[in-house]
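[Solved] Which block belongs to which protein?

Original post:
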Amino acid sequence: MKAVIQRTLTPASVKVDDTVTGRIDKGLIVYLGIGKEDTEEDIAWLAKKIVQMRIFSDEAGKMNLNVEQIGGGLLVISQFTLYASTKKGNRPSYLNSASPDLAKDLYNRFIEHTTTHYRLPVESGIFAADMKVEYINDGPVTILMDTKNKA
């Protein structure tokens, strides 16, 4: 699994066909890509790393707080393009991304896992939909994560 995590301290939302499908007041935007080799272990590892990541400022201005500690939430957006390969030509290849059925299943299980294992709101877009995401990337803080690169 690959994820791009961005911090926001203002409301964030995702819309499909002008209908809001997910909204948080503050927290983390999680663009989640599923690879064809991904498993349940990747879900647990990535969810824990994201929720425990200390990228919010404490009262001294140091990044010492995680999303739970600031009372934030997660806004999870499916993003198969994180598996784009641009080595050849001008059209990206997505050969390493999971099949739509596997990706949808693991995407939904990631949302379910974070909802049941952590004390924070988890909102999401709609898998494979054309989505419009609105938020302000605070900092900006953008973190790239890959479950195949844990060391």
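(Second protein starts here: sequence line, then its structure tokens.)
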Amino acid sequence: MPSTRRQFLHLTVAAGTIPIVTIRPIEATPAMLGTAIRNVVGEAQLRTGKIRLDIPPLVENGNTVPMTVSVASPMTAADYVKSIHVFNEKNPQPNIGNFHLGPWAGRAQVSTRIRLADSQKVVAIARLSDDSFWQVAADVVVTLAACTEEVN
């Protein structure tokens, strides 16, 4: 068995067989979204409320979509947000980001820009210090999907 890539290529070319590898993007499914969420929350109940997702409902370009997630929390040592997780429905990687917070954060809010491959649902989940999970979802219509421009 060859131990390096160079040895592998040398053996395959010498044998007259050149391996052909086709790389395709993974096709996302709603089941992948559910699995990604369950990987974070386990069997815990997802509640609605306490969390807000500010994201434009219509974006012209999916390559840079502004998003802010905030959670109503006093952020004290006894009552704070442990983490915020953001998921999407149709991107090949459904878990967009994980943000870990604590009482030292002062404010339970994160802002970033994300990429969306197509029009889809975006879900934000917050884990509080009492290990409860809160969620919010928003549908986003993307007119120009991310990763679709051709290079000439």
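Accepted answer:
You had them paired correctly. Confirming on the second one: The first strand starts at residue 46 and ends at 48.
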